Amino acid sequence: MNPVEIEEAVSNLALEPFDRSEFPFQFLAAFDNKETTIRLLKSGKSNASDVPNGVLQRNNIHIATCDLGEVDATLDALRASPKTASAKAKFILATDGESFQAEDLTGGGTVACDYAEFPDHFGFFLPLAGITTVEQIKESSFDVKATGRLNRLYIELLKDNPDWAAAERQHDMNHFMARLIFCFFAEDTDIFFGERLFTGTVEQWSARDSSDTHTIIGEIFRAMDTKSSERDAAGLPRYAVKFPYVNGQLFSGSTDVPQFSKVARSYLLHIGSLNWKKINPDIFGSMIQAVTDEAERGSLGMHYTSVPNILKVLNPLFLDDLREKLEEAGDNARKLRNLRNRMARIRVFDPACGSGNFLVIAYKEMRQIGAEINRRRGEPDRRSDIPLTNFRGIELRSFPAEIARLALIIAEYQCDVLYRGQKDAVADFLPLGAENWITCGNALRLDWLSICPPTGTGVKLTSSDLFEIPLDQAEIDFENEGGETFICGNPPYRGSKWQSTEQKCDLSNAWSRHQNLAKTTDFVTGWIARFLDYVDRVPESVAAFVTTNSICQGQQATELWPAVFIRGCEIRFAHTSFKWSNLASKNAGVTVVIVGLARKSSEQKYIYGQDLVRQCSVIGPYLVPDSLAYVQKTNAPIGEQSVMLFGNMPRDGGHLFLASEEAAHVIADGSVSHMVRTFVGSEEVINGKRRQCLWIEDSESDLAKQNKFISTRLEQVAENRRASPAKSTQDFSTKPHRFVQIGGVAKQNQILIPGVSSENRPYLPCDFQNADAIASNKLFALYDAPLWNMALIASRLHWVWIGTVCVRMRTDFSYSNTIGWNTFPVPKLTARNRSDLTRCAENILIAREAHFPATIADLYDPEKMPDDLRRAHEANDEVLERIYIGRRFRNDTERLEKLFDLYTKMTTKKAAA
Asked: pTM for this structure?
């Protein structure tokens, strides 16, 4: 369940008659607990509560219902209960059906309200559903509630009006939803005169059977597109005359409204009863976008993390500097005026603006600074000098572009109310301006200079209609001349292998000066390409984009960044990898970085991490401070480590693999029993699975064929290979006894490394096995290598190196021998060093063995890693890092700095030799 569904379930629970015995189970069910979980709690098998009428769910919540007036005492009993502590309950909750109290035992927050109001606090309990909440969701429960109601209305209208669901009418449907949102907001914020003007009019004047609801709404919309001077001639009905002229083209064009069923009319009225003063335009736009986008509907209510993440972009881009200048100005009226004038000329441009989140947050943050300036100057009621038209965007899809402008309009009004007062805000709000400064178009095809020029003229891509972008457009000036341009955004992600033909063409157009990059880089790099073109003409502009971290890893890093640097640009600031995801804990999201781009300068650069800010002179392609080194793949190690090879690829259609009974059958024939070997791939190494295969040497193929079972299997292999479309596989149909690609076979032992593994483990998974095992092509292997090599692989140093220079598979590590292992800079090792590292590797293996049959997946779960194994790894890190610098590294940043410094020295020395 997503937050919208949970909010609906909680709201429905609050409407039902209170049942003391059933409430705890109903409450847990509303937060997505499975029926089996509820059944076990009801039976008492998993309910360890020691409080009367209590239900205790381990690691989650302790709930108790009570008699009227006993809520305080019951909550005290829950808090004092030994079972609450021993079961590690995160929450306690007590209610008598009239009062409702709860406490977060880990975060310290509390809820105390009437029973009927507890759905307003559903965000407080989202961890019960496995959703990691942040502060924003507690402040935005309205947005979730409104989104859920709008979603139900949207689906109901499409069910009643299937023609409106067709592609050619999608625009009309989206336009209609945008109009509704404005009306709901306007009637709750005094923009419309009269309480519940829109909802009340629809309720009073439309028939209860909903037969004319669409007509009533259509006439209201027509009124809001009719100027006061034209109303007499327009023949508006009496109920519609009360609505103001809105202009802004929000209600222009067709006033066609979809037919309403009784259910849809009921939904509309219920939505109108919500308190729309609480709307949060920071995230509301993207949530509404999800309502009308079937592909995004599953993520309803999952947009909260975008707010703090967006500030990771905007703060270092320009907001931090504005706040510093405000601090420097103090109460100096002249400096404050100059800062205000500067802010009035700043342009914020998002060329992938979606529903406008970046622009809305930038606007609100600037208004906050502007309000403080006015307060210090003794002008608290002064109208803002920051024009909305300075916040420009490009969006490919029409509805998000519409919502972006509407979200900015709402943000402006809310800021005016907050900083100037309701009366002045209402007086200045209507009619809306007609300018459309959010462009609906393809950002990789449009000329950004035509949309966001450095001066006040030349902006051609604007419209007299909010929803259409005609080709012959009149120019519109920026309100204030000159000023700085800050470009920001979160462009769409798509790897080179998954791009559509159209996207490939768009990328080729963007990289017109570097065509090779269009073939190999992620789609997001197109926005970097367009910025390079823009900064050529607007040299003082600065950009910051959220991008997949893959552009700063592997081969992409070595191809993309030379093109950026050679064009005279630099990485001005960066934020290292973090997850840009929604609130679902099971949703891995996408791992991203933030790169701030500008013309080369002598300014200090800054790298931001989760817990630190690092100042440096340059930032390299891997977001490493003070190093511009590129890691180039190599077929041989640059240091003393052993050679690493691929495992073995069968391409057999599965016929060389044996079930346990089949393996036993072959082993029973003593002459061929040695041909049954253990087969090890990533799953086998990490999760301890067991597989067996036939491994037949060329010299024993005739002997193998004498066994009827094996002979049949080899015929099946041959047939499968002959049917393959790959000639390289067809060629091996004459040698069905052997694997197609043989990376190597150990004589004594082997160190095995999975090709793909989770980034959540504190160390890379690796294993040490005897020679009997056949390594899969899903593994890399060190055949018969000294054990001290394993100490390198199992170290934090190597984890950091691989995570930086190798490309990721989504959020997982994708290991590489040529670019990860062979390039790993290992200093000259003494005999003592090798001996110490060998002992460390042995200790790691001994610690693992002590927990048999636990698998690597079990042992390296970051929450459950055994203490002795953790100590063995820490001792390994201690020994290895002292070889590098004589002490432990302070953090991963310092590790990377040393590794890149050593890599540069080793490769330079090797090249010179």
From this structure: 0.79
